[in-house]
Amino acid sequence: MYWILPWELSISIYVKKLRYFIGNLPIFSSVYAASEALIVMAVKPEDATYVVTPRTAFFEFIPLNKMDSLNPDTLCLDELEIGERYEIMITNFSGVYRYRIGDVVKVVDYYGNSPVIEFSYRKGQLLNLVAEKTTESAVHHSIITSIKKWGVDLVDYTAIQDLSETVGCYKFYVEVNNTETLMCNKEEKRMILEEAIRKANPTYMVAQKAGRIAPLKLEVVVAGTFKKALHQIK
Questions:
Q1: Are the beta carbons of 51 and 43 closer than 8 angstroms?
Q2: What is the chain's percent helix, strand, coil content, to nearest 5?
Q3: Fewer Cβ within 10 Å of end Cβ, the chain: N or C?
Q4: Nearest by Cα to 50 from 38, 64, 62, 66
C-alpha cells in the first residue's frame, strides 16, 4: 500500500526551497489516495482540504473516541460532523476488502453532500508518551515557529520518544543551514521549542507540569545527516 499525502504535511518543510525555483506559481496537490482507491480530490490550489470521492470506494469513518476499539462502530459519509476527527475505513470495489488504513482526518466542511476533509495524522505517528497525543502537525508547527525565532533555515528534522530515563521526554534531531547559530545559547533555543510544543498541545504542557513528561532534548546534527540517512534507506 502507498499513500499520496496532502502537501501541507508531506512537503511543507520544502515549500520555501521550492519557491526559490517556482516563484509564486501555485502549488496544487490534486489527490490524496491509497493504492487501493482514490480517497479524495482537491478543488483549489494552495489548499490542503479535499472532497471525498464517494464512488471510488465504500467509505466508513470511525469516531476518534472509538478508534482504540477492536470492532468499532462506523459512520457513513452523511453522518459526519464538521469539526470532528475520524479514522478512515475503506472497502474497495476490486477485491471487496474492508480495512482500516490508519489515517485520521478532520471534517472541515461539506461540498454538496460529500464531506470536505483535511489530513490530521497517521495512527502510530503521534508523540504520545502519556496519552497526550502530540500530532505530527503540532510538532511541525512548533518546529516552524521555533526556527523563525532561532534565525536559521531548516534543512530537516525528526523527533523520537526518549525513554532512557525514569521520566520520558521527546528528543528532537534538527539539521539547519547554520549550525553555529543554533549551537550558540542552545539552552535558550531548546526552551523556545519547548514553549512552542506546549502551546501547540496544551495537554502536553499539563502532563509536563505534573511531572509525567521530562523537558525535551534538542540535538543539532551535522550538515548532510538527513541526506546520508535517506541514501542509506534507499
A1: yes
A2: 30, 30, 35
A3: C
A4: 38
